[in-house]
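FAQ: What does the model actually see?

It sees only this:
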Amino acid sequence: MLSNEESISQSLYNFQSALKENGQSLDDFIRQNYTSKWQGDTLYHVSAIRTTFVNSMTNFLTEQGLFNLERVSLSPVTDPLAHDVEHVPTISYKGHDYKLTHSMIYSKFLACMNKKFKGIFVDSPNIRLEIESPTGAQRGKYICDFSQMDVEMRRNRGVSLDDYLNNPKKVQKILKEDMDKALTFFEQLIIYSMSALVDKNEENLKALGVAIEVPKSPFPRYKKDEAVAKYGARTFETKLGQQADSQFFWVVGLLRENYDLIYPYLKPDGSRTPLADFTSDMVYNYDMCAKSIQRQTSKYGDTYEILSGAVREWLYEPIIERLIDNNVISVRPKIVNGELENINELGGYGPFLMAIAQKDQNGNSMFPDTMGGGVGIERALFALTKGKLVEKIDDVTFFGKNPDSHPIFLY
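And it is asked to produce this:
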């Protein structure tokens, strides 16, 4: 059996041999796909924009009173994702297997348990082994390892399970207020960041042939089910982008991840709202979309999702049922005298579910009610700078691993 280093060597040998058979050397390949990009003006200007973008978001979040959280790259449990990936990579360490994080979503929830915290943020690592385009097309927007500015904030509403089940009008009022607060918060984050780009990076934007439009709040907001009914499931984002007279807009109510809040979901009789009955008004999540502005023509470019987030599920009972509905876990946890009797059936979720179930000395849940989201940094840069010089996400990254670009990644 080959060692890890031997396996890497063999793969690189095979890759170099394949290049040679096609009349290309390894030197040619590295020059064309790496060193020419590293030495080029495009990445220079994008990097200047990236630096202002990340720093301005950090400054805004700090000014808002949020605390910076450390990165979490390894965990027994990670975001299961609603879309397919090739597999979840794992690393063995000290006799245990740890998953590489798809996102820091569960870490963000747990980090907000302290009532003194307003919220947290982190430029977080994300590893998603995206599936290659089935048609072989260059989709341009996917990347296997990327970073996003992750944000999570406490809501501090204290809505109980009894309210959840028996007072839907009160709960819906609160949730709609909080969702509007979340949308407004992220709009202000983007306005702050875009203002910084216009102030500091006008020459870089000009060199790339694009412009930034400092938006005004509120951004246009579209319900997903209405957009799909009008434009179709495959094209609604593109069509909304053509319709929206703004560089940024929202799509809300997307039935997606298990932690994005659905309400009403659990019913007083113990039953659940059927999947077919869910509407966008019942799904408290949101995607922000953005598009570039071509400097010479003032026309908008293609539309891309750059932020996803939600008001979160916060009560133990609906969290468990959502995990089961989404086939993330197959059984309900059985907690007896501080032990998980069926921990062997819960995968890496056992410790996380135990934390959710914990109560304080007054019998109240310690798990926080939160809202948040993540700005994909590379995706946002690509969306805002796509034009005559930036054609795919590789162009805005030094080491971007676009599944549609190369059969092997050299760096």
